[in-house]
Amino acid sequence: MGTPQSPHVGERLSAVGRRLRRIGGEIARFSAVNVVATVAAVIIFNALVHGVGGWFGGPLNGYPLPSFLFAHSVGMFISYYGSSRYAFKHRHAAGPGGGLVNYVIINLASFVIPIACLYVTRNVFGWDSVYADNVSGNVVGAVLGSAFRFWAFRRFVFTKTPTGVALLVQHPDESRLPDPQR
């Protein structure tokens, strides 16, 4: 015989199901935005480092790391726009500039992940082909970086409830406001 179940077990399971659907939707929207931003960044990176269509070496062929940072900085702003307007539009943007400052800080911190992958393939393994650069930086590094950014954006940029000044502006406590009669 099993232990009797609390009448609240069904409610808890229902709440878990709703939360999983909500997070699944966020992951799907976040992934769609990431695909668009990543495609733009990959095109820019390859044009700078490897040239267009293999017709010539790119203008920054000997500089894959700065090229990667530039291309993915462009992708970052595409990603911010899509994340704030689509992926996390139902959440509150925390921090200055509608969350843009926090977003940029997290993105810059997350650049370490694909840059480290690209550095290892170029400088440790000595692989410098188009395929090695793209697999290391734009596949392995992108997947690891995306997982980190999804967590960090939900935690520090697009929060469930307003924080700080935004909380006071959106939900002022009338008992703390000065009396206009005085």
List the helices and strands and how they pair.
Elements: H1 9-50, H2 64-87, E1 92-93, H3 100-110, H4 112-124, H5 130-157, E2 158-159, H6 164-170
Antiparallel strand pairs: 1-2
Please give a structural write-up.
The chain is 69% helix and 2% strand. The chain is mainly alpha-helical and 182 residues long. The protein has one domain (13-171). The chain has a two-stranded antiparallel sheet. The N and C termini lie far apart (70 Å). 27% of the residues are buried.
Feature tags:
single chain; 182 residues; two-stranded antiparallel ribbon; mainly alpha; 2% strand; 69% helix
Concise description?
This protein is mostly helical. The chain has helices at 9-50, 64-87, 100-110, 112-124, 130-157, 164-170; strands at residues 92-93, 158-159.
Secondary structure: helix percent: 55-70%
Mean pLDDT: 82
Mind describing the biggest β-sheet? 2 strands, antiparallel
Instruction: Give the count of helical stretches.
Output: 6
What is the number of beta strands? 2
